[in-house]
Amino acid sequence: MAQVLARATVEVVTAVGGYAGGVYLRSSQEGVLQMAMLTGLPGPLFRPWWRMNVSRPYPAAESYRSGQSVHLADAEASMRRFPQLVAGLPFPFASMFEPVTSGTQRFGVLMVLRPATPGVPVGPEDRERLREAADRLAGELAQLAAAGDPVIWDGDPLYAERPAAGEGAGETVDRLAQAVLSVNRQGRIDYVNTAAERLLGIVGPELRGRMLWEALPWLAHPAYEDHFRAVFMSTEPVHFPARRGRQRPAEWVSVDLYPGADGVTVTIGATETPAYAPTSTADPGGGLGSPADQASALYRPVALAIALTEAVTARQVSAVVTEELLPAFGGRQLAIYLLDERHLHLAWETGFPQGFLDRFDGVALDVRLPGVETLTSGRPLFFESMEHLAAAYPGIPLDAHVGARAFLPLIASGRPVGSCILGFDTPRGFSPEERTVLTALAGLIAQALERARRYDSEAALAAGLQSALLPHRLPVHGQVETVARYLPGTQGMDIGGDWYDVVEAGGGLLALVIGDVQGHGVAAAATMGQLRSSVRAFALTGSAPDEVMRGTNQLLIDLDPGQFASCCYVLLDPASGSAQAVRAGHPQPLLRHPDGRTEVLDLAGGVVLGIDPGASYPITELRLATGSVLALYTDGLVEKPGIDIDVGVERLRSALAAALPTPLTETADRLISEAGTTADRPDDIALLLAFRTGGAA
Question: What is the DSSP-derived secondary structure letter of residue 683?
Fold first, then answer.
């Protein structure tokens, strides 16, 4: 499989004029992609992006999740769509992501990086080349899967070598007083001039073939990592002063980085001590070679802050902390306790032995436990080993004998919210910088949790209102079976303006109604309740369908809530199957005939309700044969961002055609599931099915 991935990566990078690329594959952990192959970038520089949760707002994750291409021509496009990506990689570059799929099998994502083209989108030729490369790779991976290879990746990425363009260095470069090194895109030194040997005190054979940061460890400090990331990600040169070694007084050099398609030229020369030298460069530390990956912590506060603004519920906040905070510091365990009156209750945990934390759930604030004392004192507690923790709190139950722990107070604007526990599998120290960052992040988490708790309270109130406004049950009729489904949107307030109803209109007739009020929230739900009552009242008086729609339109205009609504109303005679239908700006219904043939009905329609007081709503005559299924739905079921609504309608039509008409409850569940509505939904969904059984009334 490695050869397949390497060949595909190198070929596609060359085909679309890129300088780097890679392949993400599924890992054995559900919902996680792992970088399997990389070319054109030094792997250790980009360790924070090796592992990608498919639910996070990053382009690789979205491409895998949606099955769609993602093309970002420049930094502006990246910032507009994926601010978290730019928070960690604020450099001018273009990127392309293509899902690797074969039939129903989703293997991963093919990625290419290339020079930015500000204002110029990725051309159709390059889009097609990337798509073809992804299809070829998917075909090869499908063959491996058919042969028994699971096609998953859990280890570190492998590196695919690209053909070198030739060294091209000679006597001219040797005449320079500056040290000149040629570094390939893997980060290995290919060439050094004579001055480099003299200035650095290392002979050429000891430098060539080694990683730059291994050969010159003083360049591996975290303070310099963003400079190297910038030069490998974009085409702009980078210049910065660096401190060489630990000598006293400090010896400073100027470092210049010049990127190219095949690598980076590094020049190093003498310079004066800079007027401002960050204290973090005074004592170079682990940096690129650090097992704890200190580099990722440099941008985590910004990335975590952006992610927390998107988290709405306490559970979403906890999930963001798990996905963003733990990888940054190499943590394995996380627990979040929330304060309820004078007790701490476990809200989230991961990585701890099952049931271990149950004994601490509901503890009072006068109990001597580190998770309690960090909150009551407002002071974070760091234990570099489990022995230190046991010595500070004799008799405390321990989930492991080896490791380290950090206990962080969650305090928002001076109000205690709870406490957060980070666990590590091995003993480790906590530098002053790490302690500062973790303490700051704890404040961000506390603010997000406080906001989420308010949201949870408001959402519970809104859900109760919504439940009261929608029908608790539908009428039972011997000749027509009806089933409805409602799903709230998962983004923002879990309440919207979609509604449905089935009304016994007198004379044995049934009125089937579905509608959608613009917007979300309590205001939309309140308008929805008024419209549902209006339609029901007009239907019970025996009004014709067009009169029902005109009356409801006038009511919405008179109420003037600043909203409009779409609606579809069908008046059905269960005995004969004849029906009259009107439509106000609503998606066309679907009709499944007894033989399975399913069509999108073409109902004449008027404008949405609440706009034009003189609007008319023409009636369309229909007939439902015995065994027919009529499907009314709102646009949330068929509409997705970036995809034409006709594609969603066709997908729903195909699903209804393939479904058996009975039991109708299973048909409704299948339509909801196959429409792809289990992921994040920006809109709520309503579905109403009516099956004409033809039985006795």
Answer: S
